[in-house]
Write a structure and sequence with these properties.
There is one protein chain. The protein is mostly helical. The protein has 3 domains: 12-102, Fumarase/aspartase (N-terminal domain) (Fumarase C, Chain B, domain 1, Orthogonal Bundle); 107-355, Fumarase C, Chain A, domain 2, CATH 1.20.200.10; 364-422, Ribonucleotide Reductase Protein R1, domain 1, CATH 1.10.40. It has helices spanning 12-18, 21-24, 28-44, 50-68, 81-93, 106-142, 162-187, 206-212, 222-227, 230-256, 284-307, 320-344, 350-359, 364-373, 378-395, 404-408, 418-422, 424-430, 439-462, and strands spanning 147-152, 155-161, 264-265, 347-348. Helix 3 packs antiparallel against helix 4 (50-68), helix 6 packs parallel to helix 12 (320-344) and helix 11 (284-307) runs antiparallel to helix 12 (320-344). The radius of gyration is 30 Å and the shape is elongated.
């Protein structure tokens, strides 16, 4: 490729070290589509004859077809996907293949390819997140009337609908969709035509290529177009936040499925056993999601570190962007593909969640509010309820069943109506403020999320 300046071949180990084909070959479709658009522009601008460009495009279509069908293998001797395609094209159509690289560099070519590839892959990730949201929403709808304890500091705190906790994750995942889509918007500008770094003396039409490839415009500075990968970092950051949410959800599923909680039971399809302990049913898939989160974080930090000291414009260090972002894409994809059906097949044990809510005295705040509504200062009510809770613990009973005459020893304000006031069902149903924990509120949240998903589907149909 650089014959003329050099008098000897690259050392074999150095050549292997330098090569990126083993990982950038996954961008072959984007590379070929970008080359087709570039060739069409060269003909349109009169830089290359139309007949020659027709041969180039026919040759590229043939290569794309053969790669898709598995009829063509990648040449491991090629340095990267760009040189592989160019060499194969030249082999098929002769010297016309060598003219394809007119008015472009591998610097703007790779910047184009990775943007096209990430745009395609981001859509797939968003589609997987939507499937996960649907699974969460369906499970929340199923459990909207199931009473469960909510926690702070991993201590039972207040009664909620179990569906309410699930919907918290649905909201998080919707924001993850927003972050990824926002990143794609900023990424969706074509760098092709920036060439090595300074543009070209040819009369090119960058806007034509950008429009043909579905970009919103072109990069406004040729150096910036080839030398920054902030769009990779932005997507990797969004993936890291997404994985943080998946990891938190996985952690709760791990806790909920333990014998200590037994709030849910995972389907056998998403658990494993032990090689020595026959009673075990391990939440390995959830644990792997939790574990793989660190991998995605590490990829983000690796690329941030690679880019932080690079002078403009292109440097070979930037080849390190691909393995990091590709691994993050693969990891996020695997996790989402497993999580959605794992949630969909998960069984919720409402009896256990209710018992845990009772034993946690999580209606104590409601009992204090009961006294406050009858005129007692909140701090005085708080103290009395604390004393009653201590007595219940000592006598191994709960507030719902504590005798009325025992209540009256603390205050004459207590009457029979307190039991309705502090029943867990009442406590949850009363929390019907917007976004609250009541079944009514949970169903409103579900309707809101479903409406958002329908809007997303409509947007996709219009694109």
């Amino acid at each position: 490729m650089w014959a003329g300046r050099f008098q000897k071949a690259l050392d074999q180990k150095a050549d292997d070290f330098n090569s990126s084909l083993r990982f950038d070959c996954r961008m072959y479709a984007q590379d070929i589509k970008g080359s087709m658009a570039h060739a069409a522009m060269l003909a349109r601008q009169g830089i290359l004859p139309q007949a020659e460009v027709d041969r180039i495009i026919d040759g590229l279509e043939g290569i794309l077809h053969d790669l898709n069908e598995g009829k063509l293998a990648f040449d491991t001797g090629a340095e990267d996907i760009h040189m592989f395609v160019e060499a194969e094209l030249t082999k098929r159509i002769g010297d016309a293949g060598k003219r394809l690289h007119t008015a472009r560099s591998r610097n703007d070519q790779v910047a184009l390819d990775i943007r096209l590839y990430l745009r395609d892959e981001a859509k797939k990730i968003v589609a997987l997140i939507k499937e996960t949201v649907k699974a969460v929403v369906d499970k929340a709808e199923e459990s909207a009337d199931i009473i469960a304890p909510a926690y702070t500091h991993l201590q039972r705190a207040q009664p909620i609908s179990f569906g309410h906790q699930l919907m918290a994750y649905a909201m998080m995942l919707l924001r993850d969709i927003d972050r990824i889509q926002d990143g794609v918007k900023r990424m969706n500008f074509s760098p092709l035509g920036s060439c090595a770094l300074a543009g070209t003396t040819y009369n090119t039409d960058r806007a034509f290529v950008a429009q043909r490839l579905g970009f919103d415009g072109v990069t406004a500075n040729s150096i910036d177009g080839v030398s920054d990968r902030d769009f990779c970092l932005e997507l990797m950051s969004a993936f890291s936040i997404l994985m943080m949410h998946l990891s938190r959800f996985a952690e709760e599923i791990i806790l909920w499925s333990s014998w200590e909680f037994k709030f849910v039971e995972l389907d056998d399809s998403y658990t494993t056993g032990s090689s020595i302990m026959p009673q075990k049913k391990n939440p390995d898939m959830a644990e792997l999601i939790r574990g793989k989160t660190g991998r995605v974080y590490g990829n983000l930090m690796a690329l941030l570190t690679t880019l932080k000291g690079l002078p403009l414009a292109y440097n070979k260090d930037m080849q390190e962007d691909k393995e990091a972002i590709f691994d993050s894409l693969d990891t996020v994809t695997m996790c989402l593909e497993v999580l959605a059906p794992m949630v969909a097949t998960m069984k919720i044990n409402g009896e256990n969640t209710y018992r845990a809510a009772q034993k946690g005295f999580i209606n104590a705040t409601d009992l204090a509010d009961y006294l406050t509504k009858k005129g007692m200062p909140f701090r005085a009510a708080y103290k009395i309820v604390g004393q009653i809770v201590a007595e219940c613990i000592a006598k191994d009973c709960v507030l719902d069943t504590y005798p009325l005459d025992e209540y009256k020893k603390h205050s004459e304000l207590f009457t029979e109506d307190l039991y309705d006031e502090i029943s867990l069902k009442t406590c949850v149903e009363k929390r019907n403020s917007e976004g609250g924990a009541s079944p009514k509120s949970v169903r409103e949240q579900i309707a809101l999320v479903k409406k958002r998903l329908e809007a997303e589907e409509l947007k996709e149909e219009l694109q």
